[in-house]
């Protein structure tokens, strides 16, 4: 770290050995809390059989989490100086993220309260505007671009604050939320202009996205742990039930990890560092992250259903959850993940026959949990067959089979 301050003139796109900093890893810890709260809120709504309300709230909450994380990540990739002012401003942003994370539980309540969430976001945005204004002052090359970012981020937050202050019930003003989200997402598009102006680093961005993928996969591991923990009893056999179900669930998460990290995202971004690919990669990952975290919520439902099925005398089941419902939710979340990954490969590399096959195979594999349980197969068998299906997806759609199709666009 520089003791005081160095000019924020932008990092080199081709900087060697660029990696995530300890500050960025510390920053991510806040989002572990936020993502866990969102996944827990989704599980609560689904277990209470409020499917659509829970899904809409989750999609909304996860956008706020992902957008705050992404704003900092791309800025740091281009302008991280790791000096005292940068660290202190990032600390302010982290504190805002922590306040926001605390507020997620209130936003998932029956009568949602957005007070803590709005306050947290205001703090984060003040810090983000400070970052962009500093970059605008000290980087002569991208001055106009950075001022556009600062104005855009600030105006977007003014919009959210005015929305919050409107003397209307949440349901009466919820129609404004998609418009505000579109306004948020348009800020980088407008600020960057017709070319990629900021000097983000392909390998650094790929690493940062990979680290957040690890975090959201943790929700799946938590769901697996709860599946095992809920069944530990003298009434349930370890050999016939607990271990097979646990291996199947953890094998599923391992396979999803394998799919993501089989793809050399850094190489793709380096060979195709264009405006189109940058925005596709950055924005489409929302569906990857949100679906992986939701897989954890689905596995929590599997834990509830397994406890209800194998321990019907248990008094700890607050809401009955059927095996079919749990597996339908799992199928939906798997489908979003596999389709998102397949479409990302198609749009950032090549619309090849291999990538198209991955898309259709992903849809087929994701349907397996729901279909197999519908035809009365045990959950552990259904999960096991699903894992085998994902292994087939990995084998048939692995990166080596389509690497030759990468184009320099």
From TrEMBL:
Ligase keyword on record: no
Signal peptide: none
Name of a matching Pfam family: LtrA
Keyword field: Membrane, Transmembrane, Transmembrane helix
InterPro entries the record matches: Low_temperature_requirement_A
Organism, scientific name: Ornithobacterium rhinotracheale
Transmembrane regions listed in the UniProt entry: 21-43, 55-76, 88-108, 114-133, 145-163, 175-197, 209-229, 241-260, 280-303, 323-346, 358-375, 381-399
Protein name: Low temperature requirement protein A
């Amino acid at each position: 770290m520089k003791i005081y301050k160095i000019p924020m003139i932008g990092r080199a796109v081709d900087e060697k050995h660029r990696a995530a900093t300890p500050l960025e890893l510390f920053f991510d810890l806040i989002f572990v809390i936020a993502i866990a709260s969102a996944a827990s809120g989704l599980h609560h709504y689904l277990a209470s059989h409020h499917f659509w309300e829970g899904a809409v709230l989750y999609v909304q909450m996860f956008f706020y989490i992902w957008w705050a994380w992404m704003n900092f990540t791309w800025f740091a990739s281009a302008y991280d100086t790791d000096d005292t002012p940068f660290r202190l401003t990032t600390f302010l942003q982290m504190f805002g993220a922590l306040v926001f994370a605390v507020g997620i539980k209130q936003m998932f309540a029956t009568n949602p309260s957005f007070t803590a969430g709005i306050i947290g976001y205001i703090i984060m945005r003040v810090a983000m505007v400070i970052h962009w204004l500093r970059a605008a002052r000290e980087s002569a090359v991208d001055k106009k671009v950075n001022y556009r970012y600062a104005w855009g981020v600030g105006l977007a937050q003014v919009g959210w604050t005015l929305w919050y202050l409107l003397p209307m019930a949440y349901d009466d003003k919820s129609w404004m939320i998609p418009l505000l989200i579109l306004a948020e997402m348009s800020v980088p598009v407008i600020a960057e202009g017709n070319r990629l102006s900021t000097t983000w680093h392909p390998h650094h961005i790929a690493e940062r996205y990979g680290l957040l993928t690890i975090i959201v996969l943790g929700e799946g591991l938590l769901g697996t742990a709860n599946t095992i923990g809920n069944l530990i009893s003298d009434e349930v056999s370890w050999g016939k039930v607990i271990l097979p179900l646990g291996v199947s669930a953890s094998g599923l998460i391992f396979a999803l990890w394998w799919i993501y990290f089989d793809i050399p995202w850094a190489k793709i971004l380096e060979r195709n560092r264009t405006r189109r690919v940058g925005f596709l990669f950055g924005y489409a990952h929302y569906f990857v992250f949100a679906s992986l975290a939701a897989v954890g919520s689905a596995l929590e439902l599997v834990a509830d259903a397994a406890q209800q099925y194998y321990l019907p005398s248990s008094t700890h089941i607050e809401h009955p959850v059927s095996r079919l419902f749990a597996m339908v939710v799992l199928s939906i979340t798997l489908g979003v993940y596999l389709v998102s990954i397949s479409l990302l490969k198609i749009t950032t590399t090549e619309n090849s026959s291999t990538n198209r096959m991955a898309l259709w195979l992903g849809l087929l594999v994701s349907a397996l949990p729901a279909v197999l349980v519908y035809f009365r197969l045990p959950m552990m068998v259904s999960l096991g067959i699903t894992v085998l299906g994902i292994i087939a997806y990995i084998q048939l759609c692995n990166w080596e089979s389509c690497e030759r199709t990468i184009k320099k666009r």
